[in-house]
Specification:
Elements (H helix, E strand, L loop, with lengths): L1 E17 L2 E15 L2 E7 L9 H9 L7 H7 L4 H18 L3 H4 L12 E3 L4 H10 L5 E5 L6 H10 L4 E5 L6 H13 L2 E5 L19 E3 L18 E4 L1 H4 L2 H13 L3 E4 L6 H11 L4 E2 L17 E2 L2 E2 L9
Parallel strand pairs: 4-5, 5-6, 6-7, 7-8, 8-9, 9-10, 10-11
Antiparallel strand pairs: 1-2, 2-3, 12-13
Helix pairs in contact: 1-3, 5-6
Family: Belongs to the mandelate racemase/muconate lactonizing enzyme family.
InterPro entries: DgoD-like (IPR034593), Dipeptide_epimerase (IPR034603), Enolase-like_C_sf (IPR036849), Enolase-like_N (IPR029017), Enolase_C-like (IPR029065), Mandelate_racemase_C (IPR013342), Mandelate_racemase_N_dom (IPR013341)
Protein name: Dipeptide epimerase
């Protein structure tokens, strides 16, 4: 089997800003696994927050043996971007060999469209209100926040999109005091969920804290080994393939999290339709689906995912799986 890695860049439709910085393009790695006449592929987004770079992830992938299997992969690479791209490429390869869809191989029901959030990036209140007005027709908006001065932003977005369901992502940007002050206003403004309000290393402060709006673990939850540390802090876990290290672990994390009483959100990094395709399988039945990466791009893969009023549709076999 031959494994190759290609860096790819996708321009964003507009500047995308979160509490940790801004970007104008999505830098991804495309992994291809070839076995004779069959080839599978997958995509990952190395994330500096987790100590990953394009170069370090490429080195991890290229260090794998040519006879690697999906199960064997879990003994060779940790959870993260490198394992994600290879795992998804191997799933795609297996599906092509078998002439079946990945969900059939995984014993899952055929996936259906899922309503996805659309993300409004962090900006000044008037700009965020303008973004909200432009996207007020969307049923679910996600607001990027994470500063001590977010109340005007919340008010502005709600004024701009009075009928949309709203969720908030602080990207670890609040302190316990800021979150406590904002919580009643989240309720007043009809916010349905708040994602990672506190830094992952400081989230013990959530224990015993009133949570009038469900709180979701993102940076605090990577794979199944994260679950014991979330008890008493979170109500929802955000499953992202670049954190779990692939579809295989994402499905296992979903099952384990639900068994422990958590609700599930399915999220993404900013990547192309190829990165979102496997996550559509994980998103089935999620309390929140946030797979809007391709909607934020100015360009995408061939045979991209379909987004319409029903949400994000499962991938065609021309794309993945």
């Amino acid at each position: 089997m031959e494994i190759s890695v290609t860096p790819d860049v996708f321009k964003l439709a507009q500047v995308f800003t979160i509490s940790r910085g801004s970007r104008t393009e999505a830098k991804v790695l495309t992994v291809r696994v070839r076995d004779g006449e069959y080839q599978g592929w997958g995509e990952c987004v190395p994330y500096a927050r987790y100590g990953e770079t394009l170069e370090s992830v490429t080195d991890e992938i290229m260090g794998l043996p040519g006879d690697v299997t999906r199960e064997g992969l879990y003994d060779l690479l940790p959870a993260g971007a490198a394992r994600n791209a290879v795992d998804c490429a191997l799933w795609d390869l297996e599906a092509k060999r078998a002439g079946k869809r990945v969900w059939e191989l995984a014993g899952l029901a055929a996936p259906k469209p899922e309503i996805t959030a659309y993300t409004l990036s962090l900006a000044e209140p008037d700009e965020m209100q303008a973004q909200a007005v432009k996207n007020a027709y969307r049923p679910l908006l996600k607001i990027k926040l994470g500063t001590p001065d977010d109340m005007p932003r919340l008010e502005a977005v709600r004024a701009g999109a009075p009928n949309s369901r709203i969720i908030v992502d602080a990207n670890e940007g609040w302190s316990a005091e800021v979150y406590t002050d904002l919580a009643p206003h989240l309720v007043r403004l009809g916010v349905g969920l708040v994602e990672q309000p506190l830094p992952a290393g400081e989230d013990d402060a959530l224990i015993g804290m009133d949570r009038p709006v469900p709180v979701c673990a993102d940076e605090s939850c990577h794979d199944r080994t994260s679950l014991p540390k979330l008890r008493g802090k979170y109500d929802v876990v955000n499953i992202k393939l670049d954190k779990t290290g692939g579809l295989t672990e994402a499905l296992r994390l979903r099952e384990a999290a639900i068994a422990e009483g958590y609700e599930v959100m399915t999220g993404c990094m900013v990547g192309s339709s190829l990165a979102m395709a496997p996550a559509v399988l994980v998103a089935q039945g999620s309390v929140v689906t946030d797979l809007d990466g391709p909607l934020l791009l100015a360009e995408d893969r061939d045979a991209p995912l379909l987004f319409d009023e029903k949400g994000v549709h499962p991938p065609s076999s021309d794309l993945w799986g």
